[in-house]
Write a structure and sequence with these properties.
It is built from five helices and eight strands; from the N terminus they run H-E-E-E-E-H-E-E-E-H-E-H-H. The protein has about 170 residues and is of the alpha+beta class. The protein has a single domain, classed as OB fold (Dihydrolipoamide Acetyltransferase, E2P). A five-stranded mixed β-barrel has the order 1-2-3-6-5. Strands 4-8 form a two-stranded antiparallel ribbon.
Length: about 170
């Protein structure tokens, strides 16, 4: 081992150093590194799912904080059209929050300076997804859309998408 300098530390010092390094490594490993990134929106699947071209790869993105009506559900097509108008063929800025169980990237999305997660709720074309809600402002925006009877809130008893999906599974 020519050119390698060996450092000899007392055993207790080695153990302490090893313990500190191990703790630091475990702390770093437990932190999930998410990053903001940008990409061109190349597809809109529904009112809360887009596909973004990033570094020559297509990334399927599920908008966090919200749940939009399914396409076969009342207001599903309007919700998809709204998200299309907001983002398709535009550059999106994504604040990544992780992955969902389907492998989609979870993100807060901005297109042309508009927070589209919040805007879908503001337009009455998505619910605040309380099960996964971290931004209480989204629920406030939903309350304002309900009061104004915007979009799906025009219906007397709109069915939340998570209930609609459960009913479909149960039948």
């Amino acid at each position: 081992m020519s050119g390698v300098t060996k450092v000899h530390l007392p055993l207790t010092r080695q153990m302490t150093l090893f313990a500190h390094l191990s703790a630091a490594a475990m702390t770093l490993a437990s932190l999930t590194a998410y990053a903001d990134f940008t990409g061109k929106v190349v597809a809109v699947a529904d009112g809360d799912t887009i596909t973004v071209l990033h570094d020559k790869a297509q990334v399927k993105v599920r908008l966090t904080e919200i749940d939009a009506p399914e396409k076969a559900q009342a207001f599903g097509n309007r919700s998809k059209q709204s998200l299309t108008d907001l983002c398709l063929d535009k550059t999106a800025v994504l604040a990544e929050k992780g992955k969902d169980r389907y492998g989609r990237t979870l993100a807060r999305v901005t297109c042309n300076g508009t927070d589209v997660n919040a805007e879908q709720v503001r337009r009455g074309l998505a619910w605040a997804y309380t099960k996964y809600l971290t931004d209480p402002q989204i629920k406030v925006i939903e309350g304002e859309a309900r009061a104004a009877k915007s979009g799906l809130w025009h219906d007397d008893k709109p069915v939340p998408p998570w209930e609609w999906r459960r009913m479909k599974r149960d039948n």
